[in-house]
Amino acid sequence: MIPGNGCVYNQKVLDCIADKRHTFSMKTAISLPKDVFEKAERLAIRAGKSRSQIYSEALREYVARHSPDEITEALDRIIEENGQPEERFVTVASKKTLALVEW
After folding, report:
1. Are 9 and 19 in contact (CB under 8 A)?
2. By the 8 A CB rule, do 14 and 26 touch?
3. CB within 8 A of 70, min separation 6: which ones?
4. CA dist 21 to 12, 16, 17, 24, 80, Å?
5. Nearest to 59, CA basis, from 32, 88, 86, 96
6. What digits encode the pLDDT tens for the residues 32-56?
7. Cα separation of 54 and 48, whole Å?
8. How far are the Cα atoms of 21, 85, 95, 96, 103 from residue 92, in angstroms, in the given order?
9. Which residues, in sequence order, are CB contacts of 7 under 8 Å at separation 6+?
10. For the chain, first and last CA: distance in Å?
11. How far apart (Å, rounded) are the C-alpha atoms in residues 20 and 14?
12. pTM, whole model, 2 decimals?
């Protein structure tokens, strides 16, 4: 239990289950090269976002790009829950593409 907010803290998942409207966040300190900090600062001002939002979005995107297994697992879950997608489009598109190829 995290003191003061009634959230359940799970070491493995870093999950907070208290109120679905509540966003659980972790504070951290990092060192950045000066040029990266200045570019991020300018971006935050232009985008009208906080520095935390900019860093959070950047890190979330980086992690997503470097975690292809998570994407595959998510797609597998969707297919498992909903079945295979309709393959008619693939069949029609393949036939049209093959018709254009000179053999």
Report:
1. no
2. yes
3. 64
4. 22, 11, 10, 10, 29
5. 32
6. 999 999 999 999 999 999 999 999 9
7. 10
8. 45, 14, 5, 6, 19
9. 1, 16, 17, 18, 22, 24
10. 67
11. 15
12. 0.48
